[in-house]
Amino acid sequence: MLCARFMNKNGKDWGINVCMRGRGGISFGGNGRVAAWSGFTLVELLVVLAIIAILIAVLIPVIISIREQSKVTACLSNLRQIGHAINMYGIDHKSLILPADLRDPNFDNVNGRWGNWATILVQGRYLGAPDQSNPITPPAQNSVFRCPDGTDDDGVFNGAYFSERESYLQAGYWKRQAMDLKPDGTMTPSITIFTWYGINADRIGEEYPFFRYPSDTKREKLHSFSEIHSPSELAMVYDGFFEHGGEARLMANARHKKGTVTNYLFADGHAGSVVTSSLPVSFADGDLDARPFPKYKLKQK
């Protein structure tokens, strides 16, 4: 051990010792005392590193799980807000369920659209959401219609409508622009809303709570909440793309928790998570009866 004693320039002893030990440690002491400190050995360092590695291996999955659950929770909150808005629309419209989509009553204009359920809720001030009419504006991050596990992809262009329920493609958005009817009978473009949720609807208007209005069969009578047999079990809005239109692949999107869970809004206003693999594989009555939750059809028992 090599030691040195510190003095000032006048030779006065400060009473401080500094010693170098054989293991590379430095010890400080005063009044003739030497501190008993020494450096870590290689074995000790390896033990510490091993403990840190174990803690990281344990904590990372926990952190990921917490993050995934937070997205599920945020999505369920969105759905509950949407459910409240749908119910408020019903209160203001004699208990009617709003249209899924608004088509031009002139059936010769096959592609004519006036808006959809999301634009109706926003224009009616039941919900607030960013207007995305500007084509260079990126998809909104703060919209109630955006699922936290949604993507910035336009579902129409990426083939979401033809993808399977397990596909990430269905996590893209559906874009719909509303139209305003002027006093002179002309139509002008209005707000555009992006939605990352599907709706329990078709284009016929007989079996499901929502439908394109007027329907392909020219039905104009909207369904009423009073027609719903099991409000706590009937699906209204869910993780998915556009409207299912009777296509089983579009009845859900396995979007959360590594593609295993789908979130649903039910007719009574509550929202919940369903294991996607437990869902029906078709809209056939026998399959719906075999896997009765959630329910899709108004009269389904």
Could you explain the architecture of this structure?
The structure is a single chain. By secondary structure, the protein is an alpha+beta fold. The protein has helices at 42-92, 117-123, 285-290, and strands at residues 2-7, 13-20, 26-30, 101-103, 113-116, 174-181, 187-195, 197-199, 201-202, 210-213, 235-239, 261-266, 271-275. It is globular. It starts with a strand and ends in an 11-residue tail after the last helix. Mean pLDDT is 83; it is low at 24-29.
Order of helices and strands: EEEHEEHEEEEEEEEH
Low-confidence stretches: 24-29
Instruction: Tell me the number of helical segments per DSSP (H or I, 4 or more residues long).
Output: 3
Query: Please, how many domains?
Result: 2
How far the N terminus sits from the C terminus, by CA atoms, comes to: 88 Å
What is the approximate shape?
A: globular
Number of strands: 13
Query: Strands across the major sheet, in which order?
Result: 5-4-10-9
The structure class reads alpha+beta
The averaged pLDDT comes out at 83
The share of residues in extended strands comes to 15-25%
Question: What does the main sheet amount to?
Answer: 4 strands, mixed
Helix % is 10-25%
CA radius of gyration? 32 Å
List strands and helices in order, with pairings.
Layout: E1 2-7, E2 13-20, E3 26-30, H1 42-92, E4 101-103, E5 113-116, H2 117-123, E6 174-181, E7 187-195, E8 197-199, E9 201-202, E10 210-213, E11 235-239, E12 261-266, E13 271-275, H3 285-290
